[in-house]
Fold:
Amino acid sequence: MKLPTKEKQLIRRLQSEVNQEILSLEALHRELKTLKPRLTQKEVSNLDLRAAGSILHDFYNGIENIFRRIAQELNGGLPAGEDWHKQLLTDMSLEIKGVRPPLISEDLKLKLQKYLGFRHIFRNIYGSYLEQEQIKALVKEFPRILLCLKREIAVFQKYLDELSQ
Structure:
């Protein structure tokens, strides 16, 4: 598909914004690595749980920022309704014929649902109610999820490269 110059510029800007978000997600990973030794103890302090929860919250926010930009630029806008966050995640795993390939695999979507669910909990409860085992499980998966996300986004970026040529 051949795009006019303005659309090419929008695609290139989108790519830059996605790349910037990836750098932010990598910074969160570095932060989490410094906290991780304290999270492997049998009893984790509430303060460390809150810190890890905040990083996990920010992690999904960064991912959703990528999804939002792609939805705005390529999908024609964000989903509507009360469950728009869940719908946005689902949308990113779908191919939209004539518009774009899927951004993420079905497998990654299922894994990210846990982070979306945690973010909802983190926003809506007091920090003293955070569940240690849930946070430990999400922290443990974090590096693999980030690596998988980066790989799948790299494939999508190649598609965007083709669009912007």
In short: The CA atoms of residues 50 and 127 lie 6 Å apart. The domain at 5-163 is CATH 1.20.120 (Four Helix Bundle (Hemerythrin (Met), subunit A)).
